């Protein structure tokens, strides 16, 4: 098991670089960027997502693209329930916990993009089995200063 709370050096380098560039950038109030990062991380995990998780990711993609998604509210609520149901796995380094959290993050409309959010998503990506190179590519796509 991979403990997402203990990041390896190559992921810590990503975190540190994001800290440097985000402090000078103005992402205050940007909740969309956090969700888009989570969506891209979920795309990398596509083979590991359940059918319901895939539906939630696609509904979130529609929502963040500005398209109507009748299922979005229901699936976002379902993601929140899944988080509550797996909360006991948080400290265990459980891969499913990390994946569930990333899917929820894709549907989350309230978390602003910040260094803290990036570190959290890096930990979840690592816990879900993503490599530093995979995550570096995602953050480069969403943080121009990176």
Helical content, roughly?
A: 55-70%
Total count of strands: 0
Structural class, by secondary structure, is mainly alpha
Large-scale geometry:
globular
Count of distinct structural domains: 1
Low-confidence stretches: none
H/E series: HHHHHHH
* Integer average pLDDT: 90
How is the main sheet built?
none
The fraction of residues assigned to DSSP E strands is under 5%
Question: What's the gyration radius in Å?
Answer: 14 Å
What separation lies between the terminal Cα atoms?
A: 30 Å
> Helical region count?
7
Question: Could you explain how this protein is built, in words?
Answer:
The protein is globular. The chain starts with 8 loop residues before the first helix and ends with a helix. The chain is mainly alpha-helical and 146 residues long. Helix 2 packs antiparallel against helix 7, helix 3 packs across helix 4 and helix 4 runs antiparallel to helix 5. The protein has one domain. It has seven helices and no strands. The protein is 66% helix and 0% strand.
């Amino acid at each position: 098991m991979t403990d997402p709370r203990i990041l390896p050096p190559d992921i810590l380098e990503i975190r540190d670089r994001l800290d440097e560039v985000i402090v000078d950038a103005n992402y205050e109030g940007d909740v969309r960027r956090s969700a888009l990062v989570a969506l891209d991380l979920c795309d990398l995990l596509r083979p590991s997502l359940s059918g319901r998780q895939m539906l939630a990711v696609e509904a979130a993609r529609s929502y963040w693209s500005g398209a109507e998604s009748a299922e979005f509210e229901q699936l976002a609520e379902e993601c929140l329930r899944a988080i509550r149901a797996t909360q006991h796995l948080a400290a265990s380094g459980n891969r499913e916990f990390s994946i569930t959290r990333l899917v929820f993050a894709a549907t989350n409309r309230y978390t602003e993009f910040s260094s803290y959010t990036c570190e959290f998503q890096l930990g979840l990506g690592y816990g879900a089995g993503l490599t530093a190179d995979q995550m570096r590519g995602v953050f480069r796509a969403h943080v121009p200063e990176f």
